[in-house]
Amino acid sequence: MKLLLQITYNTRWGERLVVVSPGNRRLPMEYCGEGRWRGCIARYLPGREYSYEVVRDGKCVRRERKGHRVVLPENCTAASADVSDRWNDTPSDAPLYSSAFSQGIFARGRHTAASRPVGDENLFVCTAFADVRPDETLAIAGDIPELGAWTKPVPLDDAAFPYWRLALRIDGPFLYKYLIVDRKTLAPLRWEEGENRVFACAATPARARVLASDVPNFQGRRWRGAGTAVPVFSLRSEDDFGTGEFADLKKMVDWAVATGQHVIQLLPINDTTMTGTWTDSYPYNANSSFALHPQFMNLPAAGVPADGEYLRLRQELNALPQVDYERVNREKLRLLRKTFENGGAEILSKKPFREFLSLNERWLLPYALFCTLRDEYATADFTRWGKYAKYDRKALEEYRGKHRREVDFHCFVQYHLHLQLSDACAYAHSRGVILKGDLPIGVSPTSADAWFAPRLFNMDSQAGAPPDAFSAFGQNWGFPTYDWKRMAGDSFGWWKSRLAKMSEYFDAFRIDHILGFFRIWEIPVDSVRGLLGHFSPALPYSSEELKSRGFDLSGGRFVTPCVSERMLDEIFGAYAQEVKSKYVREGRLAASCSTQRKIAARFRADDEHDRILSEGLMRLTEEVLFVEDPRKRGFYHPRIAAHATYAYRSLDDASRRSFDALYDEFFYRRHNACWRDSAMSKLPPLLASTEMMACGEDLGMIPDCVPEVMRRLGILSLEIQRMPKSAGELFADPSRYPYLSVCTTSTHDMNPLRAWWEEDRALTERFYRDVLGMEGDAPDVCTPQICRRILEQHLSSPAMLAVFPLQDWLATDPALRAPDPYGERINVPSNPRHYWRYRMPLSLEELLAQTDFNSRIRSMVERSGRT
User: Which of 30, 307, 806, 859 has a Cα at 20 to 30 A from 124?
Assistant: First the structure.
């Protein structure tokens, strides 16, 4: 078939439009004036994808977000088709086009309208519109009998929702409009805004017309929904084995439906098994970015017999108020190994497993080998695996042959985890609920990813975050940073595979620390804390530029700590003389403690004397105003939070003003275009690789380019009342949140409402008066009524999603809230050795039985207009 294409697109001077054919040939288009372009694909196979590009000087300067496909009925005999197209850009309501809505919240399911009978139709109306609820459908009405003469709307086919199609036999021009109608009765619910549309082109049996340029116009129609954030390990049901499991998500879905919610937000669910101890409970330090954690396995569903031993252990572990990470995982793996030995070979021989292995082999086998070697060498640090320290395919094929059963076991576990999570996801879809996952920004340096593909990571650096409300010293996550240039070499294949795996289970995802796609806080490997880090990419100052602004760095000035008597006395007090005699040489730190890693290795963490010396010496290593760029020698970054240093306080007034000026320029203005371009080179291809809805965790030190890029790409922002984004605000106003956002009362890194209320009395008093509008003294505790009022305030916000921690929902009921508000906290970011073990205080079965509470929650949700 021959496609005759026309599209309206306003190019700039020197730019032209080309159409990229299915064979990846770039075909020139003809400009016809007033922004109209014409082109042709001489031999087109219906259903194949083509797209448009803007080129300048022979190079592509802009691509579409999504390509086009022309699908005509099988019995269409037309030899050619005139196609009226439109540029596929990111729509302002982009999240509504994600699988979160097409497969979950707005899923058509069994109610999908049947395609109209197709005979010799010659006009094919194809449009995209997402904000149509399951009990509604998009229709068209016009001034001709075929379109109901304005009185009987004709429904479009939504089999490919949110893309709509209608085939008609029409010979002449007509007026028409789109409208939303009741699915069952076709009664009009809402007509689109604006003047009547005009179709004035002719079509014939030999030359069909495809109208794909329309964008239905329904102003002011904005869906808003509610949800709950809870880690899988925090769930509790009668069928559990001491921790939450994927199977529990079904009961969580039932509770969401009962309370009028559509979203269940989870923490990362990847395998974190490194040491086999409770320190592996940290969900952001996975040993694989693809593998699921065995702790979430429902054992009977994987074939473990529910015998006396199993039932006794289940009762004992499930009665614990918190997760016993070590024992739960040890017993689960023991019982799974026993089951695998008894019947694993049969499972592995069947077609479903073979298909799973074939689809996942690229990551699954390296992961299974990694786990086997980790257990054999009793460490996840692959640099200590002798000849297997580097991934060598030939050597590992031989190793696999000798350890077949152990490697197969790990594949067996992943297969059952996949089945159980897929089942939970399908159940959620069937009830109009979606699962929202979490994409950690980092990858462990002792992970299967780093072992299998070390070229993708900068193993000589550490990722973290600059100082913020969570940590005055910054955060050092210990993860290697990404080699983005190398990753771009294969069009970000690793990232796309990672997101594709996530999309098998999730319809939305939270991008942990989205700033990492703009710039990452990169910390030297010899640092423990984050203050000596720098942004990457960045535009550091040259030594010449700094000299011209009053900072001569020769002799190590301003970049090497200079230790004075005053500093030693103030920092170390009674220990000052000891430090001076043992660890300082001629005003400089001795070589034995010149880096934070050396200091950490030298002193004991459990000894008070050593702790004081260690913290003080680390502070001395940070007594600099500039840090040198590790990859661009002779160029320097201002040290973050340098105003708190003795080095800054010792400057004269003029030098302080000069430093303040370059510091402000560097951190708040110098990099805006650089970081915007950095994000735009990565995020668009990654977001386009799946249909998931993206939400960004955009907290902390936010450059101006971040909200601009997120709006442009349709990424939902994160809004938290106690972390306002406007300068000068103590608390954010939920009534002014943007529509494309997720609002919440707290995150897993913060105290839930009740504990936060008791953190800072003065702050609580301000909140009580200024935000809640109450008089008198604030209560000592956050009462159920106050919690309810805060949640209602958030539910009433314009934000698309209001997702609250389960703890804050439960806090609205005096009988369901946990006795200890401080025991509800999931993580303390300032403590790198925090034990992640919170479990909900009642079972999901008990929660589902709380009809009065559930009715109150549903009423709160419905009154706010979130349906």
Answer: 30
